[in-house]
């Protein structure tokens, strides 16, 4: 069992700015030139950045580290966050479409966190599931480019759904920062 007294030393891979995850030249989230034009492009850019940040926080860890519940008694782990976001993407897809809702992929409430076990097959499946569900939600929303349009579920606007997606990933990237630091000491935004 991992105890808080076993805390790893804090470190960063960055050498340019000590509070960064990686040096700017090595950070795939960094781009040169002007930012995206328009509201939808800006929202999509922020969403892509947070999605990539979550993946970066998980890189280089084995199945045990990804499944480690680093802040007892919480059931949260990096793998649990990935699985949770799979379910969230699935739910958002249900908000876009008024057909029969897709069922939860991992089962009952909180099964996404509870089923995050230290097995490579579970890790591989979670990342494959995340890619698939993100693509499905992206495709569903691409059919609704008007940010002011109201969607089937709860009459939510596309704009509100996009902002909610960014908020969800941003919040969980904050969790991922703390979880990763507990796992191997690596820090940085």
From TrEMBL:
Official protein name in the record: DinB family protein
Region (Disordered): 15-38
Any Pfam family matching the protein: MST
Source domain of life: Bacteria
Gene3D superfamilies in the record: dinb family like domain
SUPFAM superfamilies: DinB/YfiT-like putative metalloenzymes
InterPro entries linked to this entry: DinB/YfiT-like (IPR034660), MST-like (IPR007061)
């Amino acid at each position: 069992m991992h105890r808080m007294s076993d805390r790893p030393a804090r470190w960063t891979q960055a050498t340019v700015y000590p509070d960064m995850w990686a040096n700017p030249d090595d950070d795939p989230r960094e781009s040169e030139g002007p930012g995206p034009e328009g509201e939808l492009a800006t929202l999509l850019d922020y969403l892509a950045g947070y999605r990539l940040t979550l993946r970066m926080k998980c890189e280089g860890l084995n199945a045990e580290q990804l499944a480690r519940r680093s802040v007892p008694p919480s059931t949260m782990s990096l793998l649990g966050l990935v699985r949770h976001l799979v379910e969230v993407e699935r739910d958002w897809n249900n908000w876009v479409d008024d057909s029969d809702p897709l069922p939860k992929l991992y089962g009952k409430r909180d099964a996404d966190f509870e089923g995050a076990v230290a097995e490579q097959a579970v890790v591989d499946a979670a990342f494959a599931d995340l890619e698939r569900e993100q693509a499905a939600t992206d495709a569903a929303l691409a059919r609704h480019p008007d940010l002011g349009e109201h969607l089937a579920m709860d009459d939510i606007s596309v704009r509100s759904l996009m902002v909610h997606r960014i908020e969800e990933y941003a919040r969980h990237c904050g969790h991922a920062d703390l979880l990763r630091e507990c796992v191997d000491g690596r820090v940085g935004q």
